[in-house]
Design goal:
- The chain has about 150 residues and is an alpha/beta fold.
- Helices cover about 20% and strands about 25% of the residues.
- It has four helices and eight strands; from the N terminus they run E-E-E-E-E-H-E-H-E-H-E-H.
- A five-stranded mixed sheet has the order 5-4-8-6-7.
- Strand 4 and strand 5 form a beta hairpin.
- The two termini are about 30 Å apart.
Length: about 150
């Protein structure tokens, strides 16, 4: 007896927080059906805040310090099309409070945010697009992030 193929689609539905990422691309992030064309700070409970012009290269300690009142369990930093690590001085405000910070590509940060938010975890994410200087430095083989919107 042959098994018939089964297809499954995954649409993360945050349980603990009210906000989730529906889709993303090289120049946009869609949160709860609203499309943003700028870098964002997204918290699973309070939603998105535009961070116009902010990139991995311009992220500073005071940006992370501003999250202290929201008390996230973890902070994700989506650093654009390539993973970049932040300087220890930039991470210090969160690490001194024993709050983990994970740096990853923007695509990975979007997926991880939805996973953690769906588990009810208090999660914050800096979702940063490449700066123009970083984009010019990328090899020609780069491609846009896939959208996971069905």
């Amino acid at each position: 007896m042959a098994l018939s193929p089964v297809t499954t689609s995954f649409t993360a539905q945050p349980n603990g927080g009210a906000f989730g990422i529906n889709a993303y691309g090289a120049d946009f992030i869609e949160v709860n059906g609203v499309r943003f064309g700028t870098s964002l700070l997204l918290h699973s409970d309070t939603g998105p805040s535009s961070m116009e012009g902010l990139s991995a290269e311009s992220l500073q300690a005071h940006h992370l310090e501003s999250l202290a009142g929201l008390a996230p369990e973890i902070v994700l930093v989506g650093t654009g099309s390539r993973q970049r690590f932040l300087a220890p001085a930039v991470l210090a405000p969160m690490l001194s409070r024993r709050i983990g910070v994970e740096c990853m590509t923007l695509a990975a940060a979007c997926r991880t945010f939805n996973l953690l938010a769906s588990e009810g975890r208090k999660t914050a994410a800096f979702l940063l697009f490449d700066s123009p200087a970083a984009t010019n430095a990328l090899p020609d083989s780069t491609h846009p992030f896939p959208s996971f919107k069905d």
